[in-house]
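Protocol check, entry for the methods section draft. Step 1: assemble the input record (protein sequence plus ligand SMILES). Step 2: submit for complex structure prediction. Step 3: store the structure tokens unaltered in the notebook. Ligand used here: flavin mononucleotide. Step 1 record:
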Amino acid sequence: MKTLIVYESKKGYTKSCAEQIAGELGKTTVIVTAKMAYKEVLDQYDLVIIGSAVYAGKVPSRIRKFCKVRSEELLNRPLALFMCGTGEEFKDSYYEKNYPQSLLEHSLEKGWFGGLIVLNQHRGITKMVLSSILKGKQELHVEKQENISGFVSSITGK
Ligand SMILES: Cc1cc2nc3c(=O)[nH]c(=O)nc-3n(C[C@H](O)[C@H](O)[C@H](O)COP(=O)(O)O)c2cc1C
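Step 3, stored output:
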């Protein structure tokens, strides 16, 4: 099954999830950032997976724009979505707010793979805001990469 994974990742966690999905799907998987995905002819893929982390309640505009611009093609082939973030309790509202209803209904699976925040990877006002959220801690770990296998098998049926 030829698969395209389109992702955006600021600090690398979402990228590592995309790579793990690709590892489980096998050699016929292509991974690209949303910026590079415009060059892809979606017709040649049996499955498209789109994934991103959430930042302040939003997925990056490049992902939202790609979904909007390529929605017709995306609705014409098997699609799955995944999100990364530290606020799992809000995942349903993140999906609702960030993806068109038509894509949500069309998506075979909507994964949640958790996330992590490492304060020292951030600067300036972002670091200040995150510091108050982390209440003195340097790192917040709520990774859920163990959800990836179930996500892949529910899409492939294996
Ligand atoms: C500035 C900032 C804002 C964030 N806002 C949210 C949020 O609103 N909801 C959430 O669930 N996670 C939020 N997170 C957590 C990220 O989604 C998490 O750190 C994720 O692992 C980042 O993935 P990346 O390494 O691919 O950039 C935020 C992280 C940062 C740095």
